[in-house]
Amino acid sequence: MYAKRLEGIELSSIRKMFEVQGEDIINLGIGEPDFNIPEHAREAIEDALRDGFTHYTPNKGILELREAITKKLKVENNIKTDPDDIIVTVGASEALYMCAQALIEKGDKVLIPDPGFLSYDACVKLAEGESIPVPLEKKDFRMNPETIESLLDKDTKAIILNSPSNPTGAVMEKDDIKAIAELAEEKNLIIISDEVYEKIIYDKKHYSPGQFTENTITINGFSKTYAMTGLRIGYLTAQSEIIEELLKVHQYNTACAPSISQAAALAALKGPQRVVDDMVAEFRRRRDLMFEKFKDMGIECNKPNGAFYMFPNVKNEKKFMEKTLKVGVVAVPGSAFGSNGKDHVRFSYAAPYPQIKEAMARIEKILGENP
Asked: What is the mean pLDDT of residues 160-184?
């Protein structure tokens, strides 16, 4: 009754953790900011509703928003594009799905980070392509250009990059991004660059592959930066000929992004950015707390430079998660993000500081008890 290609697709482990509820549960498995939408973005939604801005928009999105995105990409990412080469999407998730459907054919190979976001593998498989995991270096979760090059063959079509990374919080170095961009040029590959966490960065600088090669589809969104995950609003940009093919998928899949979400995104982008700075400062405070607590417990853990995830090596993820669940702390098993994530656990610090403090105290207590 259903398509055979769905046989290898499993429902997200992250969503399973998202739905865990209970009176004394602390859920550190959720990958969304716990802050409110910026006030000026909320007001834009109210204005849109009052003014009747609730109808279809152009397929690519309203021009004013695409113009604002174009300016943002030029100023902040050194990517020169045009409003006609922007498609506003129903979240970055739709943008990723569009890329897979428009670019990948049966037998095509796509390199994805391992560990990496679950959707990468699923989207490739839904397009009947083959995901080729790129093992990240254990020391710092680096995606080594030499490793990428060693995995390329005649069937390789694209490389997915994600910096800052979900689930590791790693931020790619400029030299590595440039080297991968050069590979893409040399081998005529497409880089699909997922940059939804670009603003949530602490000790490094974000670089976009799109500034080094036109063989890039840049995906971004407003969910993480402006705490508007439920509004489902993102965008992508690429070369004109690629955009026109991507538009076919978008047009027949969703027609356009929600009008009121576009209004909120425009207000967020053009309004004061202090709200983002304040949010990132609080994420940094939470990160430092979680990192120090894991260090005190003797748990091996890299200090993330971006996003709001920590990915400690807990030696035995099954036993570790059994213990943490007993004390009401929810996280996501590392193996959900690929075979290289085995025996790690992803903790989100997109939860209030007191909850993180309490969760760490519970974990410390149960780890100190006899097995």
From this structure: 98
- Sheet of strand 332-333, all strands in order from the earlier edge strand to the far edge: 309-310, 345-348, 332-333
Could you give the C-alpha distances from 166 to 7, 133, 265, 305, in angstroms and in order? Answer: 25, 15, 23, 11
Contacts of 287 (CB under 8 A, 6+ apart): 202, 303, 304, 308, 310, 349
Q: Which tokens belong to 332?
A: 């996501």
The answer to whether 190 and 236 are in contact (CB under 8 A) is no
Q: 221 pairs with which residues across the strands?
A: 234
DSSP codes of every residue in 13-71 = HHHHHHT---TT-EE----S--SPPPHHHHHHHHHHHHTT--S---TT--HHHHHHHHH
The predicted-structure confidence for 252-299, as pLDDT tens digits, reads as follows 999 999 999 999 999 999 999 999 999 999 999 999 999 999 999 999
Residue 87 backbone phi and psi in degrees, to 5: -120, 125
* Residue keyed to tokens 């004109």: 240
Residue in the structure block whose two tokens are 């949010």: 279
CATH superfamily of 4-37+274-368: Aspartate Aminotransferase, domain 1 (3.90.1150.10)
DSSP classification of residue 137: P
User: CATH second-level architecture of 39-270?
Assistant: 3-Layer(aba) Sandwich (3.40)
pLDDT bin (cut points 50, 70, 90) of residue 371 is: very low
Beta carbons of 113 and 123 less than 8 angstroms apart: no
